[in-house]
Design brief:
Blueprint (H helix, E strand, L loop, with lengths): L10 E8 L2 E13 L4 E5 L2 E2 L2 E2 L7 E8 L5 E4 L3 E6 L5 E6 L5 E2 L8 E11 L5 E9 L3 E7 L11 E10 L4 E17 L3 E8 L6 H17 L2
């Protein structure tokens, strides 16, 4: 989602980083006019003055709650104070990067849905499971309840994520090692396991961003 695809009335949270400190401010989208490059948001006032987020050590990220309830995250946005003809102040927002789906744990989860093999740290046996979703901090799998997979908390597992994105003609391959942090029984005799990655995975964030961008474009019919 591009910043100029936001709609008026959407709730906004600005996350302002000043050196090692971070502050958050609530706002809302007032108007969007892509042709005029205007994405107007309610200005933040302090002691009757508009806060200006400028400076070499200042960066601003933004989370927007869109109409379907799924938040979107925009990184390193521009926040330019703007005076309207009626002398009220607003912010004009800009962002060179597209927004990505966001969850409150601090990273967005990208649906994968691919069959993979899982191997746990206690035995050499492999289990056929579905890699449900992946984020830069973790992943989840589902399997049949009848499967003899039985993982303990903090048990290490490994799955190999392989994918081909036809639109960009690129193959991706990632070894995911995670610690089991969640087990949940689901409908249709399925079980979900959630895992926290024990180390960062090079290139994973780029893959997830590309995959989610392509999904959004497909849903728009582009």
């Amino acid at each position: 989602m591009r910043v100029d695809e936001l709609t008026a009335g959407s709730s906004v949270t600005f996350y302002v980083k000043i050196g090692d400190q971070q502050m958050s401010f609530e706002s809302s989208i007032l108007d969007v006019n892509p042709k005029k490059r205007l994405v107007l948001a309610e200005a933040i006032l302090k002691d009757g003055k508009v806060l200006a987020f400028k400076g070499n050590a200042i960066s601003v990220d933004m989370v927007v709650s869109v109409s379907d309830g799924k938040p979107f995250y925009f990184e390193n946005i521009g926040v330019e104070p703007l005076r309207l003809p009626d002398n009220t102040f607003v912010y004009n927002l800009s962002c060179t990067k597209e927004g990505v789906p966001y969850n409150r744990r601090g990273s967005y989860r990208c649906f994968i849905g691919n069959p993979v093999y899982l191997r746990n740290s206690r035995e050499m046996k492999e289990y056929a499971v579905i890699l449900r979703d992946v984020s830069v901090t973790g992943f989840s799998i589902t399997c049949d309840a009848a499967t003899d997979l039985d993982l303990a908390a903090n048990q290490m597992v490994h799955v190999l994520l392989e994918d081909y994105l036809e639109e960009v003609d690129q193959n991706f391959s990632f070894h995911l090692y995670g610690l089991m942090v969640r087990k949940q029984e689901m409908e249709n005799d399925k079980v979900l396991y959630g895992f926290k990655l024990n180390t960062s995975v090079t290139g994973l964030e780029n893959y997830l961003t590309q995959k989610e961008r392509l999904r959004i474009k497909k849903n728009r019919g582009n």
